[in-house]
Design a protein that fits this description.
The protein is of the alpha/beta class. About 30% of the residues lie in helices and about 30% in strands. Helix 3 crosses helix 9.
């Protein structure tokens, strides 16, 4: 068998442009592994790519899909860690909406004990993003105040759990009573319904006027100046997406007076070495907590691979809580 089933982007547009197709199984290169995909995570960058707003990096597959779980089907030259048949979950440069995908061997991790393959498919994109931004960039420490916007998303549900286990005071924003309740269940001290309350005022009251030490924000737009207003002295704002737009008017006097750090990152364009470094930190610090059940991915729903369009439609309604996964 040299052909595989995939879902490709027929042209830039809405979910309906995701169509089943067949392609050649990719060749495995030096330092890479070929994975027989069992399940693939669905993420916001997939929707951006589908809409024509996020080109894959040079050399990456044009198929969407940035994370998967599966079994190793072949190993490239120079790969010593993995053998054919090993169960892995992996961060991908693209190509996850398929029966087979290649990725650098150093971007794969063992499936944590106790997790099934659907749960494992929901780990890498989210955990790499949260860990690298909240801890490696944001430097969150025990006792600090942490706020995540979009607390019921895959990113949000992961950030709440990891920050709470790190000993931070955790807060989240979400858009419904049900989503707020889920945030509290996962470890948030308080969840703020942004449709009814102003997070700036709530956080001022919750911290006796001190403010927030680390904010993880995927909204952007008019949240950016409000984030700055809500931050404590020496606070760190970490920007990872712009659901509300990438531009804002900001009074930098507040940044200077409060000695704030404004930073951010996107995962996909980073070097293979940078991603491998995140993988090592995850395996050492976070994978044991997944294996012993201390933390777990929050799962919303699954769809067959051929129904990727329906999965995207669901994600874009923002009614989901946690992760949406395609089962191959």
């Amino acid at each position: 068998m040299t052909k595989m089933n995939v879902v490709e982007i027929s042209k830039p547009g809405g979910p309906e442009v995701l169509v089943p197709a067949t392609r050649d199984i990719p060749e495995v290169g030096h330092g890479d592994i070929l994975i027989k995909v069992i399940a693939a995570g669905v993420n916001r960058p997939d929707a951006l790519q589908r809409a024509g707003a996020y080109d894959p990096p040079k050399g990456a597959s044009d198929l969407p899909g940035l994370e998967c779980s599966g079994t190793v089907a072949a190993v490239g030259a120079g790969v010593t860690r993995w053998a054919v048949g090993d169960e892995v979950c992996a961060l991908l440069p693209g190509g996850g909406y398929a029966e087979y995908v290649t990725t650098p061997a150093d971007h794969a991790l063992p499936v944590p004990k106790g997790l099934d393959m659907v749960q494992a498919a929901a780990l890498c994109e989210t955990y790499y993003t949260v860990y690298s931004n909240v801890f490696m960039r944001g430097g969150l420490k025990a006792g600090e105040v942490f706020l995540v916007h979009g607390g019921s998303s895959g990113i949000g549900t992961t950030a709440i759990q990891l920050a709470a286990k790190a000993g931070a005071r955790v807060f989240a924003t979400a858009g419904s009573a049900e989503k707020c309740a889920k945030c509290v269940e996962l470890g948030a001290e308080r969840a703020i319904n942004y449709r009814e309350e102003d997070f700036v005022e709530v956080m001022k009251a919750e911290t006796d006027g001190k403010g927030i030490d680390v904010i993880l924000d995927m909204v952007g737009g008019d949240y950016i100046p409000r984030n700055v207003k809500a931050m404590a002295l020496g606070g760190r704002l970490v920007q990872i997406a712009f659901l509300g737009g990438p531009k804002a008017e900001l009074n930098f006097a507040q940044v200077m007076v409060k000695r704030l750090t404004i930073t951010g990152s996107t995962l996909r364009p980073q070097s293979d070495e940078a991603k491998a470094a995140i993988a090592r930190e995850l395996e050492e610090n976070i994978w044991p907590m997944l294996a012993d059940g201390t933390i777990a991915p929050v799962m919303d729903s699954t769809f067959p691979l051929a129904e990727a369009a329906a999965a995207h439609t669901k994600m874009e309604t923002s009614k989901h809580i946690g992760k949406i996964v395609l089962v191959v």
